[in-house]
Each structure stands twice: as structure tokens, then as C-alpha cells.
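Section 3.1: Structural characterization of target chains.
Under the original work plan, the team committed to producing a structural model for every single-chain target entering the pipeline before any wet-lab resources were allocated. The record below documents one such target. The sequence was received from the expression subgroup and is listed exactly as submitted; it comprises 180 residues.
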Amino acid sequence: MVCQRCIMAIKAEAEKLGIGVRNIHLGELETNEEHVDPKILEAFDKNIEALGFERFDDKKNRIVQRVKSIVIENLHQNDGELNHNWSELIASRIEYEYNYISGLFSSLEGITLEQYIIRQKVEKVKELLFYDELPLKEIAWKLGYNSPAYLSSQFKKVTGMTPGRFRNQLNKKRKHLDQL
């Protein structure tokens, strides 16, 4: 779950089935009850699946979902500079050794945790390029890259084009206000 609307939808579905909600935040739902009837959970799963969500009850999957939430939270909901050590941040928040977390992530997701972080960074770069408010040098600094050249290299590996070409294609598709 990423947005407030998603949180409201999950909460509404839980309350419809009489599941007491203590707290909902990025990727997690805490209930008031220690155990919820499996039949109610099955109904809850069907209801949220119809809304495009999925519940993970397995401990390993929950760890991976928490890792994803940490990455998304830090990249997409942070306006400051991202110049932290990802392995230290994730290990401290998950409270497991980073090597275990990284291996678990790779085995369940089919890509490395580093690749996932790079893909999320590229999505953030696309968003920043779309709004065309910052030069590439500032975007690189904001996302913790040492140089715009390194950012461009990773961007091209993931998307097949440079950030400049991506921005130019966006500008060609955009309509000027007088054309609306």
C-alpha cells in the first residue's frame, strides 16, 4: 500500500468483515485481534484481491514486502538527499543481517536487492524528468549518485535510453497550454 486511498480501501474491507484495525501503514496491517478466523481472512483476501491487493502471511514474504516498503518510502516519499547506505538502513529497520535479507530477497523476487533499488531509482528519475523541474546534475545529487554520468549509465541500462533522450521524448508528447 502506498497512498492514502489504498490505506482507506484496505481499512474499509477489514472493517466490513469485523476485523479490528489497530494501524495501517506502508505495506502492513496491524489488527486488534491476536488471531483472526481463517474463513474471515479468506474472505478478506478475496475482497482485497478484487481491489488489486494481496496479503502476505508468510514470514519470509513479509520481510521482502517490508524491504520494498522501506525502499519505496525512502525513494518516493522523501524530498531530501538520499545519501545513505542502503544495506545499513535496511538491516537496521528489518533487524536481520543484510546478507540474509539480500539472499532472501533474491530468492523470492528473482532479482537482487541492488537491482530492485536501481529500478526504483530509475522510476524516481523518470518522475523527476517528467516534471522537468530539475537538471540532471541535481537529480543525481538528490538520489545519492556520485555523478550525473553514473546516473545516466544506470538509467540507460534499465530503460535503453539516456535521461536526455527520455526527457526529449516526453517534451515531444506534451502539449503546450495554448494547444489544449
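The chain has a mean pLDDT of 85.
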